[in-house]
Amino acid sequence: MTLVDARNRPLRDLRISVTDRCNFRCTYCMPREHFGPQHPFLPRDELLTYEEMTFVTASLLPLGLEKIRLTGGEPLLRKNITTLIEQLRGLDSSLDIALTTNGALLFDHAASLKKAGLNRVTVSLDALDIDTFHSLADTTNHTPELILKGIEKATSIGLGVKVNTVVKKGLNDAEMLPLAEKFESMGVPLRFIEFMDVGNTNAWHMEDVVSGADIRRLLTHRFGPLTPVQGQQVSEVAKRYKTPTGYEFGFIESVTSPFCGDCTRARLSANGQIYTCLFATKGHDVKSILRMGGSTQDIGDAIASIWTKRNDRYSEERGAREPSDTKVEMSFIGG
Ligand code: SAM
Ligand code: SF4
Ligand code: SF4
Which residues pair with 191 in a beta bridge? Predict the structure, then answer.
């Protein structure tokens, strides 16, 4: 059975946030003044276990689920994450399993992630210049070189690798070309993400957004004309463009060119709530059903009932909406 929402969008992707904790404090995601020692991170017994995450995934496979993305917070901080990947892989050999990471622990984990059955990894890297990197991540414990080593390692062992760069005006615009040149030379696809108004703590202003169109103009000067790549899957979040030599840049333009019409993503927070939009203000409790002994049929029915009512299109309505200060945080729901 293919499940569709109120706008006829199927449920194809599940993003699982495995932890709300992180070893970075990126200023656009977890500003330290809000995510300091006083922040109430989830206690251990509120986190879904790996068995519970796998159970929810199993419940959704008959409804058309095709892809899983493990995220957070920083997913590589959760202990024995490879156990979860093994369990998910055990459900279905054709399930596409990806993970998004800040890359600080990737060099050490890449081989075991691959062995456990991970297909792809998306690494977030916003600067090659060390001072800019440290000021964006608001930590000096890691370096861009370490992230690059992780990317090289993941590529060399056959994991699919993409890099994500969030661009915030005045902070890392000067990094766009160095990053583009670096990843073009490595043959690793790079995607630029517009700074989004996700959550309530990152002091988002439209003036801080560098649009995908502006980034393409900059890249054109350096790489030559960019042409749109044909035949992209509708649910792909990044618009891809090719340079004359065939290298592809991606652009995730959630602010200036929203893609809600093709959004097939549900999100499962680390404490077992389903969210139907990145900008949602509330989730739907699934953990209680799990902990009351619900079957995969029960969980599938509960999520199907949530999904059929889904009518979210936040990014398309952004300009017309009153700003809300109760949106869920990105580090909690998973990017
Ligand atoms: N910690 C991991 C990481 O950074 O890759 C996974 C979680 S993080 C929330 C997932 C993605 O969301 C990252 O690529 C990050 O750059 C992006 N992100 C976080 N806050 C954002 C914002 N305000 N606007 C755009 N992208 C954002
Ligand atoms: Fe952590 Fe990722 Fe958010 Fe940065 S973007 S603070 S690495 S969760
Ligand atoms: Fe999907 Fe919500 Fe983002 Fe639109 S705003 S693409 S519905 S997550």
Answer: 164, 250
Sequence spans of domains, the chain: 13-333
Nearest protein CA to atom 4 of ligand 3, as residue: 260
Q: What is the whole-number distance in angstroms between the Cα of residue 312 and the centre of ligand 3?
A: 7
Fold classified for 13-333: TIM Barrel (3.20.20)
C-alpha span between 270 and 67 (Å, rounded) = 18
SS3 for 327? Answer: coil
Q: Which ranges of the chain have pLDDT less than 70?
A: 1
User: Distance between CA 61 and CA 67 in Å, rounded?
Assistant: 10
Q: How far is CA 235 from CA 42, 55, 142, 323, in A?
A: 31, 24, 34, 27
User: What pLDDT shows up at residue 183?
Assistant: 98
In this structure, are residues 92 and 119 in contact, taking their beta carbons and an 8 Å threshold? Answer: no
Classify residue 59 as left (phi > 0), alpha (psi -120 to 50) or beta: alpha
Q: Check residue 333 and give its pLDDT.
A: 83
Q: Which of 29, 195, 237, 278 to mutate to test the pocket of ligand 1 (most atoms within 8 A of CB)?
A: 29
Question: What is the atom index within ligand 2 of the atom nearest the CA of 74?
Answer: 8
Task: Report helix, strand or coil for 169.
Answer: coil
The secondary structure of 5-39 as a DSSP string is: -TTS-B--EEEEE--S--S---TTTS-TTTSSTTS
Contacts 24+ apart (CB under 8 A), 45-48: 46/270, 46/271, 46/287, 47/18, 47/19, 47/270, 47/271, 48/268, 48/270, 48/271, 48/272, 48/287, 48/290
